[in-house]
């Protein structure tokens, strides 16, 4: 009988048949994600980790920095053996170096379930059994925006989600200035699951009403076909210059909303003074958009309800704080922030939960306990931390120092996918004493670990799928048995906690089922508090899903601020939109001054590396998850990831569709299959992230990935001293046709 389940990219029914696991999208989803086609491949795939496996050098020689990490052999051992050894090593590090010696690495995309949530599980374990850990703050997708928005508008969770909705766009918006586009492959995914994909329908409805969508970026596919989008093909990293040119036109033609700026913002005079020489001609020289088109676009934006959006891709680049801040300034000058379907929205179209209203009851989470130490690093600075313990660095007005981490515990993430400069990351993890991962499959991260504990995947366990921005909560029924000796993260941590004397504190006497009932009881209480029916857990589990109430679509805190800026001030120092921030200015950062500015990229195409590389999110998988799945594999060419290049760039290099090409710079190289298309800007090559890192020589300082992972090429440096976010979206490369036989791709073959 089909049973309900959920992933970050959609809910579905799963049923085991004679032909294997059959997946059927949720009937009420108008546009199910094709990523669901990847799910059946997770059942007993050859890449699965089946038994606890330990790197030979660590098992035989003990913990310590080791250059063999990432290229050593592995041995399979029994659960009791490895857990005993691992508990002893954790106790050694804790007692000798304190919790400061342990880094709790995780990323939130492992499962849509609220109980088997990797971050919650590993952090709870480290807090209760070790006393704490060095944590990360921010995320790879949005760290720069998260920091700058907190200074300018308020926390991004409050000012970007539930403020501008897709219903508003469909009904009210006249013009969308989509900096970085709004690609449907990105909005198909949302943490905790998505019950209905509504983005295409909303954009189509707006277009039919006469709304104009302007896709501003180097990739035409960043807005969907069928809405008549206008494509302004600008070079990577030039968006802030275009925004400033638009602002200059608004000011010089007196199209800006003086009353709005005076009532709702601070710092406009400082920004206006900076704009005096940033006219349309200046912006045209940087962006390639003719000055007349820039002026025309500014006039159109001032002539109706205009929404300025900034994709997450823009701030995943050097000085990534600036386009976010400049976009806020542009929307403020238009005077439309807080109006339905107008103003500013960071991330709309970048993740599925942007553009939706909030659920009206709290979504329960596993309590993580208390971290007894207050040590954190920006998430994208992990290699810096491992390579340079004790080194000072600046972030968000603070001078901090990297701790000396000896033990990294990673659950629910693949840093050898989402981190930059993978050669540098390889060197960094070799500095550790011990590196432990829980993994269902043999990712590159698992291959670099000392201890690999086989973890179940979502379809092999019961859970509850829920999100603060989706109205449907799903009973995620276990669909298949796990392969080999795989265990849930919770079961692994419970066994380790018992060995460390923290078993009762960690489990609180509950098994996994009891924890699900505990989580559900808190959500049911929220329903009851709202005077709504709250079925029992057993009734919910049998029904398969439960609809949750949502708040009214009134624009969240931005709408309330627009209606009454005195009674509902923003959570900024002034209570208003900070176009100039005294706080940020006081930090004294040359790479992040007190108002939005144009800062030219420091790495640009040159004769050695004449092409921009755009390393964006893939359309065939979520990050690197299920890279071996049917949908992901079908879009590779002979097992290799596809790089899209402009016909002119292909012609000068003698490259045709399907050719194997090499992308390279001073950090590394990778192979890919060429796709020649005018959908990318000339001078740009696009290669998505997520192909599992497969170096030809794991010991090489500058790796050569035969599979097509662009993060062998990207730079590992922070966006600026303000946020220290990830800059993995852009770099520069050379491209050449690969001559001779191409090495085979064995990324999905286990090392043991």
UniProtKB/TrEMBL annotation:
Listed cofactors: Mo-bis(molybdopterin guanine dinucleotide)
Annotated Molybdopterin oxidoreductase domain residues: 48-499
Molybdopterin oxidoreductase N-terminal domain boundaries: 5-43
Residue ranges constituting the Molybdopterin dinucleotide-binding domain according to the UniProt record: 611-728
Recorded superkingdom: Bacteria
Alphabetic keyword roster: Metal-binding, Molybdenum, Oxidoreductase, Periplasm
KW Magnesium (keyword) present: no
Similarity field: Belongs to the prokaryotic molybdopterin-containing oxidoreductase family.
Protein name: Molybdopterin-dependent oxidoreductase
Originating species: Pseudonocardia benzenivorans
